[in-house]
Design a protein that fits this description.
Blueprint: E1 3-4, H1 7-27, E2 33-39, H2 43-59, E3 62-68, H3 74-85, E4 92-95, H4 105-111, H5 123-131, H6 139-149, E5 159-163, H7 170-179, E6 183-187, H8 194-199, E7 203-206, E8 224-227, E9 231-232, E10 238-239, H9 244-247, E11 253-254, H10 261-280
Parallel strand pairs: 1-11, 2-3, 2-4, 5-6, 5-7, 7-8, 8-11
Antiparallel strand pairs: 9-10
The chain binds guanine (GUN).
């Protein structure tokens, strides 16, 4: 039976470190602020945004919510980004995705000042991740790295498989694993020999968005399996991309859903917002 990786415990540790550093900055007169922008009434986005605001409270940041109507124009949203880029109280800008179809997400991401881009979605920050010289860590992949490190297993030289190639998770995830000297394979919907590739993996990161996609027969005995998926089943239950029942019988370590990667993404967002404040104040 696999060891359970407790994302709540690891995220609490990261947030406690951020809170301590934020308290020290406050003594120097530096307050930290995160602007959270949500457009429309997507229920999942509302849950995420509320969690992000709550995390700000926990670590002692100010949060500024901008809840905008579904029908806002792209230009109105760009105008708001411009105001936030120039607002000294705001260290980080988070625009919750997805945006309504009439708004070009890339245009919005590109408009966020790279030094307030705490999601690390701007092409400038994506490029920095590629060359391994990043200020902002991509939140979900960085959270996954913390979870893997919490097992005490050395990543260097391991065979890692990332399933999914999104700009937000799969691609930056592969880069972070590569920077730590894993041998990385990126699998996706056109991969023909997924079973064979996964069977050889010491580390599997599942970020496909399909319930129970990773089955027991895909996992090598003792592997680390990290589940980034959050899928809602017809019965309303949340479930990941990994068939937890079957895979936990073979894996060495596994993350639960919920309570695995989810809390880490938010903790890393707090860490990035702290980094943004320190960069602005010229503090290492
Ligand atoms: N929607 C789903 N995940 C994320 C995330 O990490 N950041 C933002 N801004 N939107 C998301």
């Amino acid at each position: 039976m696999a060891n359970l990786i407790d994302g709540k415990a690891v995220s609490a540790k990261v947030k406690a470190e951020v809170r301590d550093e934020a308290a020290k900055l406050k003594e120097q007169g530096i307050s930290i602020g995160l602007a959270v922008v949500i457009v429309g009434n997507n229920p999942a986005s509302r849950v995420y945004v509320n969690s992000k605001k709550k995390a700000c409270e926990e670590v002692g940041f100010n949060s500024y919510e901008y809840a905008l109507d579904e029908n806002i124009t792209q230009q109105e949203l760009l105008d708001l980004i411009d105001v936030l880029n120039n607002d000294d109280k705001v260290n980080g800008i988070l625009v919750q995705l997805p945006l309504p179809k009439h708004i070009d997400e890339n245009a919005i991401i590109n408009a966020i000042s790279p030094d307030k881009d705490v999601d690390a979605f701007h092409p400038y920050n994506v490029g920095k991740i590629m060359i391994g010289e990043f200020s902002f860590l991509p939140c979900t992949p960085a959270g996954v790295m913390e979870l893997i490190d919490s097992t005490g297993v050395n990543i260097s030289g391991k065979s890692a498989v990332v399933i999914g190639r999104s700009n937000i998770v799969g691609k930056p995830m592969s880069m972070l694993l590569l920077h730590r000297n894993a041998t990385v394979t990126i699998c996706h919907s056109r991969t023909t020999n997924l079973l064979e590739i996964c069977n050889a993996a010491d580390i599997i990161v599942a970020a496909v968005g399909k319930a129970n996609f990773v089955t027991g027969d895909m996992v090598k005995e003792g592997a680390i399996v990290i589940d980034v998926g959050i899928n809602r089943l017809e019965n309303g239950k949340l479930c990941g991309d990994v068939d937890f029942e079957a895979v936990s019988k073979k894996a060495g370590y596994i993350t639960p859903v919920p309570g695995g990667v989810g809390p880490m993404t938010i903790a890393m967002l707090m860490k990035n917002t702290l980094t943004a404040a320190k960069l602005k104040a010229n503090i290492k």
